[in-house]
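ENCODED BACKBONE
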Amino acid sequence: QVRLEESGGGSVQSGGSLRLSCVVSRDTYNYVYMGWYRQAPGKEREGIAVMDKAGSTTYATSMSGRFIISRDDAKNTLYLQMNDLKPEDTATYFCAADSSLTWYHTTLARPRFMGQGTQVTVSA
């Protein structure tokens, strides 16, 4: 059964940090691309970062340097370290897995697999 389960969200003040985790079922963890995206109320889905099986990463320009994607293969877990959080980072954060990057580059496509999301709220 395909499963992605996020955790680690919460409420922080501006400038704070959070680390999100996404436990991925074994069969899903083998997909080529795994990554994170977010969606705030009334806004389009926004890709944050994605990692391929070789460990190469791609980041959204606006979040590069503040957010770091990583994974622990022994735990089938994907992480997103978020530093220097800002109120505009408030959103629901989702992890995703797919064999292509289409979902990451356009909101016209959804990732093949995604979790239920974890809420991040940043106060000024």
Observations:
- The mean pLDDT is 93.
